[in-house]
Request: fold
Amino acid sequence: MCTVDAPAVMSFRELSAKGYTPRRIRAEVAGGSWRVLRRGVYARAGACNAVAEAATHGGSLACVTAARHLGLWVLDTDQRTHVWLRAHGRSYAHADCTCAPHWDDGTTSETFGLPTVARVLRQILLCRGIEEFFVTLESARRLGQLTAAGLRWLRKRVGPAGRDAIDYSRSDADSGLESLLRWRLRPHGLTVTTQVSIVSVGRVDFVIGERLIVEVDGAPNHEGESHRHRDLLRDANAAAWGYSSLRFDYTMVVHDWPTVELAILAHIDRGLHLR
Reply:
């Protein structure tokens, strides 16, 4: 998020409409309150780099960059700045540009305003695919950023695969890792229950079948010796109550899924998910 109130970037026309004269704009730039991104486009001091880069390129944040800016959960597989150029925008060359442009219809009241959350999700679907769409969709639903009207708009503008993902999505997914694991296990037709409370263990991320616990650990919550001890204690208590436990971290789930999948399916093949 930017450290300034919106709009963080404004055009000369917008500044003029707010009473800024050319002389005042020059003074504000000289004083450091604003900086020139390109001719006729200015960013406030404190505007985040992604917003400024998108405006320099000719538009506003789009796709996974916009989702990340809004605090939604996105995979870390694409760190480019995605830029919304509307349907007939123009891109501008700039130093070290790796921007990913998005041309689609839609307008905002501000020249460099963000697309709606529903439009951001559609951009993710078209650009990054169904899996990344799904995990960010569940994040938007959980955080209350996708309105009922936005969901209806989205459903009308995606294909059968997108509508299927919408139907499968929930508004109570605890994290993007939870969403991702559920999505990737879906083809196997397993009974997967999330956020289950177990005696002497507490709340666990998943129970597959009747007694296979799967925990997916995000690094911020599971680093350090104290957390390691707590996790081992939880696993020991789970075993005492007849459960088997598997534990994976972010890197494994996101970047080494075949290993995670094989470990889970090996337990399933041995019947360790059944009583």
Q: What stands out?
A: The CA atoms of residues 156 and 163 lie 8 Å apart. The chain is about 45% helix and 15% strand. Strands lie at 9-11, 34-38, 41-44, 60-61, 82-84, 100-102, 192-198, 202-208, 212-217, 244-249. The mean pLDDT is 93.
